[in-house]
Amino acid sequence: MLVRAITLAGGLTAAAGFSQQYIHRLSGAVDELSRVVAEFDTDAAALGLSRGEALRQLA
């Protein structure tokens, strides 16, 4: 019974650690995507286009 409780506690601790890592990686990906979108918007504006117009031209 004690081994089962220790195993469960260890599993929950590991799951929480992996969850934190995943959230951190996801946050980094969102930040990078935001940077790419801002750069795209800047490039589109330099050409006198809105984001939608620029995307339509790329399609």
Keywords:
mainly alpha
General form: rod-shaped
How many separate helices? 2
User: What is the CA-CA span between the terminal residues?
Assistant: 61 Å
Give a quick account of the main beta sheet: strands, pairing sense, barrel closure: none
Residues in β-strands, percent: under 5%
Class by SSE composition: mainly alpha
Order of helices and strands: HH
Q: What's this model, at a glance?
A:
It contains 2 helices and no strands.
Topology:
Layout lengths: L1 H45 L4 H8 L1
What would you say this structure looks like, in words?
- This protein has a domain at 20-59.
- 90% of the residues lie in helices and 0% in strands.
- The chain is built from two helices and no strands.
- The chain is rod-shaped and about 70 Å long.
- The termini are far apart.
